[in-house]
Amino acid sequence: MTPPIIRSLTDLRDQVTTWKRAGETVGVVPTMGALHQGHLSLVRAAEQDCDRVIVTIFVNPKQFNSPEDYEAYPRTEEDDARKLSSFRVDAVYVPDGPQMYPDGFATNISVAGITDGLCGAHRPGHFDGVATVVTKLFTQTMADSAYFGEKDYQQLQVVTRLAKDLDLPIEVVGCPTIREEDGLAMSSRNLLLSDRARIWAPELNRAMQDMAEGLLKGEDFNTLKAQATARIAAANFTEVEYLELRAADTLELMTQADRPARLLAAAWLAGVRLIDNIAVG
Ligand code: AMP
User: Fold this and answer.
1) Distance 134 CA to ligand 1 centre (A)
2) Whole-angstrom Cα distance, residue 212 to residue 92?
3) Which atom of ligand 1 is nearest to the CA of 188?
4) How far apart are CA 39 and CA 37, in angstroms?
5) Distance from the CA of 38 to the center of ligand 1, in angstroms?
6) Structure confidence by residue, pLDDT tens digits, 170-204
7) Rounded CA separation 271/192 (Å)
8) What is the pTM of this model?
9) Which atom of ligand 1 approaches the CA of 189 most closely?
């Protein structure tokens, strides 16, 4: 059976209040829909930890950098509900724009520092949009824990930081990236790739894996980066926005894998922006 869909905040609050009065714990999985196995792995983690699970679906206009990108984002609500039917999901919360941002909405949540580089540098305002909507989803659902993918590694750090800084009574749980068999990180945006581009796409991850291996052997960062960039370009990517080694916890820039690090990249293929990241050491 497909889980019940809740569209209004009042109905959501009534439902969650009933659960909480019964002493039940609530987990939330925030998504923008077009659900794939990556999202479903978060649902599985929430199921294991919590008595009640809410999946939210909201394509958040505030975190897009262009109206075209926002319009093109896949919207597959019926399919999404069907995919969730094999899980113990108690509610799918699908607010509309005015529900989330009513007339006169004027508040912005901005997390400093950790948002400076990587996607933050290339997508102005993106993380403000993420931080604002996530804060609202946390307070709206009153969840005890929230599940996010390492696929969006910088986002996971931003959300962890904001929950801590604002004393939000919620535990942020990071879950590993789920990949296609050829290594491509699952993403709703993969639906926008042409058949040909889909064949080229895994080269980003392959180049990153080899670069990580080189870093662990102590090879020079800049040489490895140049090789990886050339390889990604040879797979028809038009631009590598960034390919950087960062500290796993603070996202501080690094050039040597001498402590736990993350290699993170964003690159454009056939008009689609793909991101990926892997642990190094
Ligand atoms: P999105 O719908 O793209 O906003 O993603 C919703 C949540 O799913 C975020 O926490 C993402 O990090 C997570 N997610 C997206 N893709 C994957 C993946 N391939 N593996 C694990 N989590 C993912």
Assistant:
1) 14
2) 38
3) 3
4) 5
5) 6
6) 999 999 999 999 999 999 999 999 999 999 999 99
7) 9
8) 0.97
9) 3
